[in-house]
Write a structure and sequence with these properties.
Elements lengths: L1 H4 L2 E6 L7 H11 L7 E6 L1 H4 L6 H17 L8 E4 L5 H10 L4 H5 L2 H9 L6 H15 L5 E3 L5 H18 L7 E3 L34 H9 L19 H14 L3 H7 L5 H27 L2 H30 L7
Parallel strand pairs: 1-2, 2-3, 4-5
Helix pairs in contact: 4-13, 5-8, 5-14, 8-9, 10-13, 11-13
Bound molecules: adenosine-5'-tetraphosphate.
Length: about 350
């Protein structure tokens, strides 16, 4: 009975490569506590990955690794539904219907589409443009009310709301209209090499990104090379708009150590960037090491991962089928003759 009144949460990560500290602090880490309060579905959104070119064998490997990572980060298959997007065919089918209530102009205005079109100028495919409609489908299929994402995905959730409201107005109430759940401090972790840009899995500069699989040496090396500034004053470790590199490191430090940014500023007063960067590295390493050990253990047990994914797909399909049948009926498609 209690389950029936729980709000539903949906979110996902693309298996496009090595998951970054940005993905973790901006998204995955914030999902864990939600499991106590909400009915959560967490998805490995593999269909989204295809919008940029993938090596098929690597995509398969990344998909398993991301599933193991979800569990290693504290997502509990006994409480939440963990599944692979392509295992529930309704995602792609609902996306087609939602396409018919989404305007080309809206999709052309999406920041991610413009960014990725610039980065992949030789492959501006329809999937890249349609990405937000598939994301709307992911969310609306489960009648999710809350969508925990990083700042870069807020625009897509807003479009999802517009699509849901438009569909509801045209065909009568069908979809829950979702809201973003944004974690303040981790919402946008920046590149270590260009602190005005977000940290991104697909960044070709490996020094810009800390991945969840980086070992202690790699984490320390990347943080020592992180861009700061030439300030040599006693309070150079300061969170402020004119110090984007230092502010980013302070955010990372605070999120990984549990120490507030203000307290950290006091702790590092009179100490230079070298000492500060080493402390950031220690804090990050202490977060990553237990996750890495658990992910390794899980990946050695492929049968377990498969059983989680099998069960997740069954649970997700059950909800997805209901929503899609309702949508097909509302738009006037004739139900299958049995
Ligand atoms: N730098 C970031 N800071 C905070 N949150 C972030 N997210 C991504 N980067 C940061 C959040 O992570 C979740 C999963 O993202 P995704 O895999 O669906 O795709 P993305 O947003 O496009 O992330 P990437 O790392 O930049 O992937 P690529 O390079 O493949 O495009 C989302 O909730 C996102 O907000």
């Amino acid at each position: 009975m209690a389950d029936e009144v729980k709000k539903r949460v949906f979110s996902g990560v693309q298996p496009t490569g090595k998951v970054t500290l940005g993905n973790y602090l901006g998204a995955i880490r914030n999902w864990t506590p939600l499991q106590q309060q909400y009915d959560c579905l967490f998805c490995v959104v593999d269909l989204h990955s295809l919008t940029v070119e993938q090596v098929p064998a690597e995509l398969r490997k990344n998909t398993f690794e991301l599933t193991a990572l979800y569990i290693a980060c504290g997502l509990d298959p006994a409480r939440s539904t963990l599944f692979i997007q392509s295992h529930v065919h309704e995602h792609a089918e609902l996306a087609w219907i939602l396409d018919t209530v989404t305007y080309v102009g809206e999709l052309g205005r999406m920041t991610q589409f413009k960014d990725k079109s610039r980065k992949h100028a030789d492959n501006i495919n329809m999937g890249l443009m349609n990405y937000p409609v598939l994301m709307a489908s992911d969310i609306l299929l489960y009648q999710a009310e809350l969508v925990p994402v990083g700042k870069d995905q807020v625009q897509h959730v807003e479009l999802t709301r517009d699509i849901a409201q438009r569909f509801n107005a045209r065909y009568s109430d069908t979809f829950a209209v979702p809201q973003c759940l944004l974690s303040k401090a981790g919402a946008s972790i920046k590149s270590l090499q260009d602190p005005t840009a977000k940290m991104s899995k697909s960044d070709p500069n490996e020094n810009a990104v800390i991945t969840l699989t980086d070992d202690a040496d790699a984490v320390r090396r990347k943080l020592r090379r992180a861009v700061t500034d030439s300030d040599t004053s006693a309070n150079c470790v300061r969170h402020s708009a004119d110090k984007p590199g230092v502010s980013n490191l302070l955010n990372i430090y605070s999120l990984c150590s549990g120490v507030s940014v203000e307290q950290a500023e006091r702790t590092f007063e009179g100490k230079g960037y070298g000492v500060f960067k080493d402390a950031v590295a220690d804090a990050v390493i202490s977060v990553l090491q237990p996750i890495q050990a658990e992910q390794k253990r899980l990946l050695a047990d492929k049968a377990y991962i498969e059983s989680v994914l099998r069960q997740g797909a069954e649970q997700a399909s059950h909800i997805a089928q209901k929503t899609l049948a309702k949508v097909y009926r509302k738009v006037g498609l004739v139900p299958k003759i049995r």
